[in-house]
Amino acid sequence: MKECISRTELGRMFADAAQLIRNQNEILSQLDSQCGDGDHGTTMMRAMEVLEDAIGSSPIDRDLSETLRQAGWSVMGADGGASSALLGSFITGMGDTELGGAVDCAALAKCLATGLQSVQKRTKARPGDKTMMDALVPAVETFGAAAASGKSISEAMNDAAAAAEAGAASTKSLVARHGRAKYLGEKTLGYADAGATSMALLFRGFSVALAAVKES
Predict the structure, then answer these.
(1) HSE-up of residue 89 (Cα within 13 Å, Cβ side)
(2) Predicted pLDDT of residue 37
(3) By C-alpha distance, which of 25, 19, 53 is closest to 208?
(4) Degrees to nearest 5, angle at CA 157 with 156 and 161
(5) When comparing pLDDT for 81 and 140, which is higher?
(6) Residue 87 burial (10 A CB sphere; 0-12, 13-18, 19+)
(7) Which segments within 23-128 are labelled E, that is strand?
(8) Which residues pair with 6 in a beta bridge?
(9) Residue 197 has pLDDT above 50, yes or no
(10) What is the total count of domains within the chain?
């Protein structure tokens, strides 16, 4: 029998991700203060609360694709600037994959890939630019490779979280080439990008939730 996740596990993934971001919101804002407005932690915490509430309050009979689309639109409607818009776009894009009521590893890989494609349509940033893409792209690609190799959902998500964390850490050695931070040039060296760090926390939260589900 294929390992699948349902609406319950999906809700837990976002709840655990929201909790990690809440716990780290001050660190995220400190990182953002080096290259931005210093409000990334607050912005992400508010966006994740909206996302968690939207998924948690979604009607039980609504399929997962529609749940994700509606939740993503709720995040994009939150007052959070580019961070909320891109996070919302990722979640809405995930809903572009038809999921029904349960998702196996291959379907979740496709779901994450369509989410990434949605973000790529909204931003010109790519890996190497010192943005969230330095964590998001490797996470999605790693999950896809793990799914193709036959790994379980929890194993694939753990791999994806590790890839996101490595990507976020790599931004310390990058000079910002996108957004307002690019005008700071060499001054952005030595600090991890806040957006990439929050993406790493998102995927680690997903992994923590799926590992707990597997053990229960």
Answers:
(1) 16
(2) 76
(3) 19
(4) 120
(5) 140
(6) buried
(7) 102-104
(8) 102
(9) yes
(10) 1
Distance CA 5, CA 46 (A): 26
Structure token pair of residue 55 = 């998924």
* Whether 35 contacts 184, CB under 8 Å: yes
Closest-CA residue to 158 (of 215, 116, 208, 91): 208
Q: Which is nearest to 198 in space by CA: 61, 71, 24, 50? A: 24
Residue with tokens 């190799």: 149
Tell me the pTM: 0.93
Task: For residue 124, give the CATH number of its domain.
Answer: 1.25.40.340
Quick one: DSSP state of residue 6? E
Interatomic CA distance for residues 153 and 41, integer angstroms: 28
Full residue range of the structural domain in which residue 168 is found? 4-215
Residue for token pair 């997903």 = 206
How far apart (Å, rounded) are the C-alpha atoms in residues 162 and 114? Answer: 21
Structure tokens at 216: 């229960």
φ, ψ dihedrals at 150, nearest 5°: 95, 10
- The mean pLDDT of 204-209, rounded to a whole number, is 97
CB 109 within 8 A of CB 144: yes
Q: Which two tokens stand for residue 191?
A: 């600090």
Tens of pLDDT along 162-192?
999 999 999 999 988 877 777 667 777 888 9
Tokens of 19: 């909790």
